[in-house]
Amino acid sequence: MKLLITCRLVKCESHASEMDNIIQETKEFFEGACNSLLINADKDPIIDDKLHTRP
For residue 45, is it within any domain? Predict the structure, then answer.
């Protein structure tokens, strides 16, 4: 019984670690995507004009 509980705890910890990795990779992806959009917005005069002509 003790071995079974230990195995389940290890499995849960492994899944938690996998989820942490997925969350970190997702954060990094969105940070990169947002930074890319901001950089491209600075280079695109159409987007830049729309941003500066708002009331």
Answer: yes
Distance CA(20)–CA(55), nearest Å, equals 43
Distance CA 55, CA 37 (A): 23
User: Domain total for the chain?
Assistant: 1
pLDDT, tens digit (0-9, with 9 covering 90-100), for 4-39: 556 666 667 778 888 889 999 999 998 888 877 777
- Per-residue 3-state assignment (H helix, E strand, C coil) for 1-55: CHHHHHHHHHHHHHHHHHHHHHHHHHHHHHHHHHHHHHHHHHHCHHHHHHHHCCC
In a domain, 47, yes or no: yes
Sign of CA dihedral 11, 12, 18, 21: negative
Question: Is residue 2 included in any domain, yes or no?
Answer: no
